[in-house]
Amino acid sequence: MIAGRTDTAGAGHRLRAQLSRGVAAVDRHPSAILLGAQLLALLAYPFFENTPAGRAALGTTGILVLLLALQMVHRTAGGRRVVVAAAIAIPAGAAYLLAVLGGMRWLLPWGMGLEALFYFHAVACLVAYMLADRRATRDELFAAGATFTLLAWAFAYVFATCQMVQPACLSTGIDPNAPHTWTELLFFSFVLLSSTGLGDIVPMSPAAHAIASLEIFVGVMYLALVVSRLIGIAVTQRAR
Predict the structure, then answer these.
(1) The whole model's pTM is what?
(2) Distance between CA 41 and CA 46 in Å, rounded?
(3) 2-239 architecture in CATH?
(4) Is the Cβ–Cβ distance between 82 and 74 less than 8 Å?
(5) With contact defined as beta carbons under 8 Å apart, do 166 and 207 qualify?
């Protein structure tokens, strides 16, 4: 009996130690959690975007994960930025849920626009976090990847809003008037942000052309100013 209790106590102690190490790893690398969640959602969207419940669940989960990551990244700078993010995210999530599950389709452009604003705010917070010092930590390197995905999400929401206001603003050779799915808009956003071309979607309206030009400019400047600075600092640290 004593040996059994000792084995049980040892197993419990090891489990608590593993949980403690896991919590510490999350606390040290919150941007890695955000990047993993964004990439997982990117792979999951094609399988869930055709159902209203699936779209609502993915959108709500993404907002909650992003709020948690922002709170952890900026835990030493006060909660003002997190409060601003929550003030944008709550009405955005409510509008999206009411539009998808409640049938209030007129709220969908407002929800998409607020979500775009929310992601742009998150990008600004993460860029400020990466440029705050002259050291390149491992979490800041993860934050560089997470920020790139957030930019792609933000512009995809902008294109989605533009498509709802101007249904023929984006076109393909197959059916110029067919609305594009979220996966197609996200792919289009990644293609523009990485400056690898236009893909199979072509901007047709002046507003769509302006948004596409702005995203290409932002993608080039992000790689030139933020990512190159982090790489330079990391190389310098290793040389020292």
Answers:
(1) 0.82
(2) 9
(3) Orthogonal Bundle (1.10)
(4) yes
(5) yes
Query: What is the tens place of the pLDDT at every residue in 41-83?
Result: 888 888 877 777 776 677 677 777 777 677 766 664 556 777 7
Please give the full DSSP string across 176-197, using - where no structure is assigned: TTPPPPHHHHHHHHHHHHTTS-
Q: What are the distances in angstroms from CA 206 to CA 41, 113, 119, 212?
A: 31, 18, 24, 10
Residue closest to 133 by CA, chosen among 80, 83, 77: 77
Is-contact 155 170, C-beta < 8 A? Answer: no
By the 8 A CB rule, do 122 and 150 touch? yes
DSSP string, 201-223: -EE-SHHHHHHHHHHHHHHHHII
Percentage of the chain beyond pLDDT 90 is 18
